[in-house]
Amino acid sequence: MIYTKNGKTYHCPVEAALDVIGGKWKPLILWALGDDVMRFSELQKMIPGVNTKMLTKQLRELEADGVLTRTVYPEVPPRVEYAITDFGKTLLPIMEALCAWGAQYLGIDDAAVSRCPTKAGKGKA
Amino acid sequence: MIYTKNGKTYHCPVEAALDVIGGKWKPLILWALGDDVMRFSELQKMIPGVNTKMLTKQLRELEADGVLTRTVYPEVPPRVEYAITDFGKTLLPIMEALCAWGAQYLGIDDAAVSRCPTKAGKGKA
DNA sequence: CGGTATCCGAATTGATACTG
DNA sequence: CAGTATCAATTCGGATACCG
Q: How many Å from the CA of B52 to C1' of C17?
């Protein structure tokens, strides 16, 4: 069986799921938006090392996949807010599982894991 | 927090997990080896479109990550068998979750999903 | 503030041919 | 049978500069 969406072809739904969350900065974006609505500049601060082009690209892809929403407020200076959708929230338990597995793989104590680098200390799970 | 393994750097354990299962053919390989031990040529038959170079590369990476084992039998003609490890088996429930989410994303009935293309009809889950 | 546009190097994937 | 080697094509990721 072959699956298709948005002109892309998958041999297995797992591939499709990985295509949605597999971008370089997407896990970090999803962790960040899991709790809060955030502005572009806030995301950029929470994700060290990302540049505007890549952050924009990954946000637009997640938006196109129905995982998050982008709301533009017609003000000066402009304000744009990103929020996770209900559908996007269904990814969070899977991310938790991936996080736990990844911690095992890395040989670290899962309880010591701060999922999002800039959210350490906010408490886990 | 920054995590390191094999010279690679991750900002989050999720990235590490995705690095392990995120290769283009890896989900298919893992489904295939989830049930059975298989030879190289069997895998190649089960995964349409892959060429020997890519299949070799992805298998070696999964082996290096401790997800599967590679056993060479010193016979003529040569025989090489690949099998999932106990650690690799811990990925399978996560793959199931990714598969279910991917089916939702693709807008198809999860019950209709055959996880591995060439294993359709063997029964699901 | 929240982006685009351009250019570029690095990494990934693939087709094809050959080998112990 | 189970790969390697080589080369080509594509995609991805990033630095920098500019714009409404």
A: 13
In a domain, B19, yes or no: no
Q: Would the Cβ of A78 be found within 7 angstroms of any atom in strand C?
A: yes
CA–CA separation, B62 and B26 (whole Å):
8
pLDDT digits 0-9 by tens, A42-97: 999 999 999 999 999 999 999 999 999 999 999 999 999 999 999 999 999 999 99
Per-residue model confidence as pLDDT tens digits over B83-113: 999 999 999 999 999 999 999 999 987 767 7
- Look at residue A51 and tell me if it is in a domain: yes
d(CA B66, CA B69): 7
Beta strands, E only, B14-67:
38-39
Distances (CA, A) of B116 to A49, B28, B47, B79, B119: 37, 6, 9, 24, 5
Q: Residue B28 and residue A5: Cβ atoms within 8 Å?
A: no
pTM of the model: 0.92
Minimum-distance CB partner of B18 among A27, A49, A66: A27
- B78: nearest nucleotide, CA–C1' criterion: D1
Domain count within chain A: 1
Task: List the domain range (segments joined by +) for residue B76.
Answer: 24-115
- For residue A86, give every residue at least 6 positions away whose Cβ sits within 8 Å of its Cβ, in sequence order, or none: none
